[in-house]
Amino acid sequence: MLSILLNAGYSLLEERAKAKCTKETCPLSLSVYGYLPNKGATYFFLVAFALSCIAHIYQGVRSRSWTFMIAFGVGAFGEAAGYVGRLLLRNDPFSRTNLTIVLVPGTVAPAFLAGGIYLTLKHIIIIYGRKFSRLAPRLYTWIFIFADIASIVIQSLGAVIASRSTKVSPVGNNIMMVGLCSQVFTLLIFGLLSLDVFLKIRSFQGQWNESTLALRNSSKFKGLLAAIVTAYVTITIRCIYRIAEMAGGWRNPIMQDEIAFIVLDSVMCIVACLVVNVWHPGFLFQQSYATTKAERAGAVDGEMVERA
């Protein structure tokens, strides 16, 4: 996706280069987005994502949830960086540099947010009981994080191929589209597997892990589950929106609709970041590790008894 946006956008900018377009000499309709980003909305989301990033770093250090901190910290930072680019576009909507600042972080950031969500399923399964999962809990992390990284690598490969030509590269663009579609596909598969786990857990309520009863009954755990579902839904909506935005080609009506962008991109991503700030999963990770340690200790004790 990044390659499609960058190269198509650059192509338009290069076509206007001879005319030396500026905000004063050319109409906004000739710019990439066809509008100047709303100043108030841009500042709001820039500050919101920046504060969310700081909060995620603090919460991650405090709870020692390093991988999750990297995922959501980088994701929120990338979103904030994208809004810096949108502010710069207000000054020069024809700038190739400003366009790059908008597109690069904004394309990569949601993949990191999705990666953070993938990390939680393993721990939720451990809290309820490993028997409710078709796969070993650790496999969910490996499979989906690998798929998430692969999506980013594919998009980066497409960008490299496309960047070797001054014109739009069909090969690079196609590779980028594969990367974007694989990201949405991964989200959907994750949702289906999570639903499968949920249905199994609900069907066998009397067999839940007794050692985690107090945690499961706590309001913070229930709030976290709701937050994870909310973050998953909002990020999925955002990714589907970006596919629709690109499907109509560069400068199509969806791409030039700032309200649609704010509602289906900006709002979706900030909701995902903030709900996880409010219900941070640090305590979930700590309890999950403690439960795993206790289970291993119990298994060792049981083995020693059998040998005796």
Automatic annotation (TrEMBL):
Q: How does it sit in the membrane?
A: Multi-pass membrane protein
Superkingdom of this protein's organism: Eukaryota
- Where is it mainly found? membrane
For this UniProt entry, which segments traverse the membrane? 40-58, 70-89, 101-121, 142-163, 175-199, 224-244, 259-279
Q: Which GO terms describe its cellular component?
A: fungal-type vacuole; plasma membrane
Recite the UniProt keywords alphabetically.
Answer: Membrane, Transmembrane, Transmembrane helix
Record-linked PANTHER family: DOMAIN PROTEIN, PUTATIVE (AFU_ORTHOLOGUE AFUA_6G14140)-RELATED (PTHR31465:SF8), PROTEIN RTA1-RELATED (PTHR31465)
Its recorded name reads Sphingoid long-chain base transporter RSB1
InterPro entries the UniProt entry points to: RTA1
Where found? Membrane
Q: One of this protein's Pfam families, by short name?
A: RTA1
